[in-house]
Design a protein that fits this description.
homodimer, about 475 residues, MgtE N-terminal fold, Tetracycline Repressor, domain 2, three-stranded mixed sheet, about 5% strand
């Protein structure tokens, strides 16, 4: 059966109530692929039917993979026994995940029918703060005494079976219940089965505190190439484990958050198409307003130079180019900082090194860009793309001509850009490191402030140099 | 021994040539932590000393974890036998990774002394295109015949030992050498050891083509929660495997690339502090110049309205606010698109749904922002933060007064913002989907074009509405 036909096959099997066929589809295809098709089924009774005729090991996973809308619809259509069936093969951390998205009445209905030990696990997990190690860990893991022999360990693992989410790494404790080591499953195969675990265990293992931020957990996973890691509570006892697949989600989530932040969108929890319109409005509109308020400074500067602009309208033609180029340049530095701080490539103590490096980069970029901008502005004015003629400016008709005016304006653009680009890089470094030190996300805090500072400084330099030249040198 | 003292302890052990101590440090601490300290050792002979006295299983990993600068320095200081020692315990894919960063003369020196079979593996891996499944896979894996019994499989695994990078999943082939299944190590423990592998193997496994983009590979890993996956060559035979830790790197790299792209910085391969200044300049400067060239359109528009600006300088005070707010709004939509396309939340066929949604979001955001901007502009003008007085504009002194002028200007700002924000969202959706369809990264292609289009449309609306009002209604 090809994956392309999965949709047709499943719909047909449901319509003809072919229980055998439906079960064989679940045996052949990954549940996540089936979940996407079930999400699109219009008739909820068809979905309930699937949950009744398919093995609970499959339906527990299917439920987890459905969209939250479909999950809620299902709970409303389920009898209590259907809920019990789904929960019977589910993992507590998965159930906690979907419960945390559901309305309170559905949560309490599920908790009411959940088996006692799972209810305890769920209540426990629900208590951990979002985005901590506790919120992503699972409470199902294998913990053995260090004096246990390999042989008895293997037979105990066989008894427990697939209940422990990741069985590749087992955790070892001493008589005081402290975690003292880990054993990878292959070590059980490689060694004499009469040895106690403490002789083969790895003592170089990593642990995290249950309250550690999940982003820090992900960094440890990447740094040490881990597949599973123990989570310790405040008594330094193991209370859960985190596995590699949890970390995929964390890294992806954090990356998505960085992108949202850089784009000035507040954090989004649900997939785009499932996020209601008013939620999107609330994620977007406040930022635009905040950035607009920050802009009051540039408006004030522009306003105070209004008489200059009235006399020389050409100034306002090139100001967006200057603001954009310096803003882009500051954005590049902030982007580099967000990237390198996120990858753990630079640390707090590196700020001097980084500032010096960006100063040099800014100077060279500034020189290149300002030479280009000078030429580009000359080209625009001399070809008439941008009209700039001496007769429009009676104040300087006596002392200048078209060519000189073009050279002065283009020169002003070039000089302003050189200084602004260097400053924009320094603002980018400075504000990113300040945000980092204050434990704020540079993408949230530094990005808008850099733009504001760059706008202010560029405008001041632009009009400042202009006035210096015209008013003081030429006395106009 | 605490990790804080690691630096002191290691330096002391090196100075006193305490071989036992140095080895015990490697047994106690993760190699990556030691590598950071070794990176900072000034005297390269100290580093060479470590490589000579420590077990090769540790030094192979240490070498891989050092900075590329240190690696090159070491190869230059190593005798041939030192290189052989490092390679003896290394994995071909790790060696390939660092070779691809080294100058050609060092690469050829390493390849000359490498054992023949490793040299073949490396040459093979070096031939895969960057960022494909082939470039991140490892060629060491366990492949067994489907008729092999569990018992004989276990004894063969014991013989091969730790050579196979990930031993958690073993791969099963039929008599034609086609991949037909996978077996997780715990299945070997759970089953009757006389059974052949084909009876316990999982047939619902995922594979990828060796030329598939690594980002697509990472998506499959996340979607199916995998720990290892087979890579097939053009004959559909297994030629390597990819493991979860490779995927951490891919996800992190791709996320870093997205951030760089959104910030208009070209792709950076090395850590920030190791990237030479001129490389950073080349990553930054061209983008600023390209964006400046794209800006020619806004300059042309501004220039063609110069006589309006000459008459009404107040127009130029509010134009940056309009350009910024609409640009930010377009950036939000592009950010959302980049995020959702990257997370696989939206697909090509969703463009109509997404465009409608963003149109509605844009309309509501636009209304909120324009009402706020109207009030804000009124406040700025009435408090004198921005000066706007009827006596500065002789052309309209007869038909208006300060209050009416303020209302007209603030109204113009509001109307322009409403239309621009809606358009900016539609440009964001349109260009992101076009980039996606052309298989270009929306962050590289869509972002700058959205800004350009938004600038052009906002200016045209701003001046267009102004002229419509003044020139046609009032006939001024």
């Amino acid at each position: 059966m090809e994956i392309g036909n999965l949709n047709l096959e499943l719909n047909h099997a449901i319509k003809s109530k072919d229980i055998e066929k439906i079960n064989s589809i679940f045996e052949t295809f990954p549940t996540i692929d089936i979940a996407e098709i079930v999400d699109d089924l219009k008739d909820i009774t068809d979905v309930v039917y699937i949950f009744r005729v398919v093995k609970s090991s499959y339906t527990a996973e299917l439920f987890k993979d459905l969209s939250s809308t479909k999950q809620e619809e299902l709970i409303n259509s389920f009898l209590d026994k259907d809920i019990v069936k789904v929960l019977s093969s589910a993992f507590a951390d998965d159930v906690t995940d979907y419960l945390s998205e559901m309305p309170a009445n559905l949560v309490s209905r599920i908790l009411k029918v959940a088996p006692k030990d799972m209810r305890e696990d769920i209540n426990h997990l629900l208590n951990y703060k979002d985005n901590t190690a506790g919120s992503i860990m699972t409470t199902e893991f294998l913990l053995f005494d260090e004096n246990e022999t390999i042989k008895s360990t293997i037979s105990k693992i066989k008894e427990k079976g697939k209940q422990a989410v990741t069985i590749y790494t087992i955790f070892i404790r001493d008589s005081l219940r402290n975690l003292v080591g880990t054993v990878d499953l292959d070590e059980l195969l490689f060694n004499d089965t009469t040895k106690p675990l403490k002789e083969i265990m790895n003592k170089k293992f990593q642990t995290v505190d249950v309250n550690l931020d999940q982003e820090e957990v992900a960094k440890l996973f990447k740094r040490y190439d881990l597949t599973a890691m123990a989570v310790l509570n405040s008594d330094k006892k193991i209370c859960g484990i985190i596995t590699a697949d949890d970390i995929f989600d964390v890294i992806t989530e954090e990356a998505a958050e960085d992108i949202s932040n850089i784009s000035n969108v507040s954090k989004i929890d649900k997939p785009y198409l499932e996020t209601p319109i008013m939620k999107l409005v609330l994620k977007c509109a406040p930022w635009i307003v905040v950035l607009m308020i920050l802009q009051v400074f540039s408006s004030m500067i522009l306003s105070s130079f209004q008489s200059e602009i009235n006399k020389f309208a050409i100034l306002s033609v090139f100001s967006p180019m200057i603001l954009d180029a310096s803003g882009n340049s500051g954005g590049q530095t902030t982007g580099l900082m967000i990237r390198s701080l996120g990858l753990d490539e630079i640390h707090r103590g590196d700020w001097k090194k980084v500032a010096l490096k960006e100063f040099l980069v800014g100077t060279i970029v500034g020189l290149i860009v300002s030479v280009f901008a000078f030429g580009w502005a000359m080209l625009e004015m001399s070809t008439g793309l941008v009209s700039c003629h001496i007769e429009d400016y009676p104040a300087i008709q006596g002392v200048s001509n078209d060519t000189i005016l073009h050279l002065v304006v283009a020169g002003l653009v070039g000089i302003t850009l050189l200084i602004s680009i260097v400053l924009s890089k320094l603002f980018g470094v400075g504000l990113s490191f300040i945000a980092y030190k204050l434990k704020k996300d540079p993408a949230v805090m530094a990005q808008p402030l850099v733009t504001t500072l760059v706008d202010i400084s560029s405008l001041l330099i632009y009009f400042g140099v202009w006035m210096l030249f015209f008013e003081y040198f030429l006395g106009i």
